Amino acid sequence: MKKARYDKELEREKEKLNKLVGEAFNKGIPFTEDEAVMKQNRIVDTLVIKIQKEKRKHNKNQLER
User: How far is CA 18 from CA 14, 40, 41, 60, in A?
Assistant: First the structure.
């Protein structure tokens, strides 16, 4: 059930990122210069990596059966 939890968490974090990106855009701030956007982007990246690792682990276990 880790996948479902990660998927829900990823969706929440992506929504936060999109909101921050929209705010930065409206203020005319480059995304790479907005610390909040960059921090949230790292959170999303970390979750994507976790999900990919879980998928790889799951696929490897399936192949071993």
Answer: 6, 9, 10, 33
Q: Could you tell me what percentage of the chain is helix, strand and coil, using 3-state DSSP and rounding each to the nearest 5? A: 90, 0, 10
Residue 54 pLDDT more than 70?
A: yes
For range 1-6, the mean pLDDT:
72
CA within 13 Å, CB half, 33 = 6
Q: How many domains does the chain have?
A: 1
Is the pLDDT at 43 greater than 70? The verdict is yes
Are the CB atoms for 10 and 48 separated by under 8 Å? yes
